[in-house]
Amino acid sequence: MTVDIAAANREALSRLCAARPAWTGVRPAREAVGLEGRALLHAGPPIEWERMCGPMQGAVIGAILFEGWAGEPADAERLAASGRVTFAPCHSRGAVGPMAGIISPSMPLLVVEDPVHGTTACSIIADGPWGWQLRFGAHAPETIKGLVWLRDVAAPAFGVILEKEGPLELATIMAKALTMGDEMHMRNLGATCLLIRALAGPIARVVADPGQRDAIMAFVARNNDQLFLTWAMSAAKAAARAIEGIRGSTVVSTMARNGVEFGIRVAGLGDRWFTGPASIVEGLYFPGFGPGDANPDIGDSAIMEVYGLGGMAMAASPAVLSIVGGKSFAEATNTTRRMAEICVGANPLFAIAALDGEGAPTGIDIRKVVRTSVAPTINTAVAHRDPKAGRMIGAGMATPPLEPFSDALVALAEEYAG
Amino acid sequence: MTVDIAAANREALSRLCAARPAWTGVRPAREAVGLEGRALLHAGPPIEWERMCGPMQGAVIGAILFEGWAGEPADAERLAASGRVTFAPCHSRGAVGPMAGIISPSMPLLVVEDPVHGTTACSIIADGPWGWQLRFGAHAPETIKGLVWLRDVAAPAFGVILEKEGPLELATIMAKALTMGDEMHMRNLGATCLLIRALAGPIARVVADPGQRDAIMAFVARNNDQLFLTWAMSAAKAAARAIEGIRGSTVVSTMARNGVEFGIRVAGLGDRWFTGPASIVEGLYFPGFGPGDANPDIGDSAIMEVYGLGGMAMAASPAVLSIVGGKSFAEATNTTRRMAEICVGANPLFAIAALDGEGAPTGIDIRKVVRTSVAPTINTAVAHRDPKAGRMIGAGMATPPLEPFSDALVALAEEYAG
Predict the structure, then answer these.
(1) Which candidate from A176, A181, A201 shows the least CB-CB separation from B179?
(2) How far is A258 from chain B (nearest CA, A)?
(3) CB B190 to CB A205 under 8 A?
(4) What are phi and psi of B116, to 5 degrees?
(5) Residue B264 — φ and ψ, nearest 5°?
(6) Domain boundary residue among B231, B266, B286?
(7) Are B226 and B249 contained in the same domain?
(8) pTM confidence score
(9) Is the terminal CB of chain B with fewer CB neighbours within 10 Å at N or C?
């Protein structure tokens, strides 16, 4: 049974480009992705408790405390190890989680829908301004308190705002943000500001309690240039879901890391994961930290590169270089050029002004990756490997292993030869 | 009496780079710049009513109606022509006005102070969301209504916010905005968003009346990507005032256009204007408009180029090219390189990421302009020449005449030879 791979990939590119994901709601994971009982979702390909890296174990402990399944970290750890908590990838439920990517049933999720293809995707609202963050493995009382506040105060307010104001189109925000120097993975300042611009009026109108209004406004408007990331990730996932299952397509539909393994899924191969060891991120460390403290590459945020952003769109973001440790703007444009070699095409929506309006390279073709031995460049944050640290220690560029791409290609050949 | 021009220019550059202008208040022009009686300020070098261009005459009529000095446009026009209204450049009072630049005694002005040099500068809050705008010559009832709302509602609220929150540092906002693709003259989207981020919380906290809160939030957060421009202009003017009067300096301290003439002032020559004919702006016109509708170059906004931004910093703003009609990003970087040839140095605060962190060329040296015949590139909006149109019809790049620069150089030679 022959397949027309080129046609399938053109279809995949066309769907990625046509997607117009919009933020439509905020709902508990229980409702949004049907997460019931003592079940947790995590970043990356499947992994069991024992093999999880430090930040992921730390975040699991935090989520168990947040859900009230245990009262103390030691009890939470015992419960996690007991087999009485089930684990599955976020991607198995159409969700994405940054860094450890832990999602528990009561966590409020952003719901993003692409009306063009009828897909839905979800992600967390990253806890920002309360010291260390769950996604980096933090699980101290202040972290749990922040999650409770998000669940009880911020999320319901966002929900009411969306009900009153209607969906917020994210694709156009992201396109505009690219002209503001975002590449949408490690730099989301422009998009975050555009989100604030969209939400400020509604927050002031909708939230009646002055203290809550003040706190929600501070949450969106203060100190978190990366706030938009999980909105971007949800949007990218909604777009990527539209290519899942395109028969014969060699375009990557998922790239994700659990901190131990890097994994991909391919449009023409459904839900099968192809994995290899997670790489160490090359980049810039915060003062006092170094590669010895770094957890290997972790998080579902590589969905940004699947959607043609992040490392793919480096040339849109001269300023991200000082965050991820790039040496020159020429390096950034070279990266985008190199990424174009492994992609099916470009997304005109994501026009890069510094490349005279060329679209961001989009649709990673595993055939091209294997043929050129060029792996996708993934811009990413770096987590401390020790969950007791529970924090970000730097950022950089990850180069994932090539084996998952070649393994997937072999599998595709076998499947369609069969 | 010899002067060390090089040392004087190093001092000028050093002051421009050291300036840290901050927004400290909002006060009526009467208080802020001592504008009393029937006096109006206008953009550019001195000009009398009879010679004013259409948009400036239209804005004068609007300001007279706003002040209540006349009740109907025809009466306002007669009053303006009668000699009973006095006119002076904004720059004569340490102020700057965009486009027609008309400032009347009751208009609320942004007050910006540079604590480093003790200078103060002012500009209007540009009327945004009510149809046509005074600065383009509009003077219909909706324009006047907008000015009244700014005076009675928005300006007092801003004043209270600044009292409660303290000054807002503009230099760092501008530096960050450059990394967001602003050049701060024709593209202020990043800075506008950062201003919204700074003001959203305080507006929600300070403005008690829900209707007013909503309207003020909408004013800052909706549909006006150029909102920040007059904050930027005030900041640039505060910085530029620090070099006025540096003996022997050939650095330009003022560039401004009244729609008929382009004029400069030079640090070492005090308040003397050197003028030539205002040029026609080359750029992009909105659909339905063309060069035949365009008023010649107008406005005090060229203070941005005096401060090393706008056309000087084109390489920071790949996206401004589609606004001003640039053809390629290479053209933008070439423009910044060419501007470096006529400047004393660069401002490290305004690092251009796409040029690997090089500062924006700063401190236009009239000697270099004359020697190279390279005029500063000024990014600018284009006004319709007919005050009845009262609107913006496009944007582009203006190349001012060289005569004012050579005339100033002659004057400087004469002064210091004397």
Answers:
(1) A181
(2) 32
(3) no
(4) -65, -40
(5) -125, 160
(6) B231
(7) no
(8) 0.96
(9) C
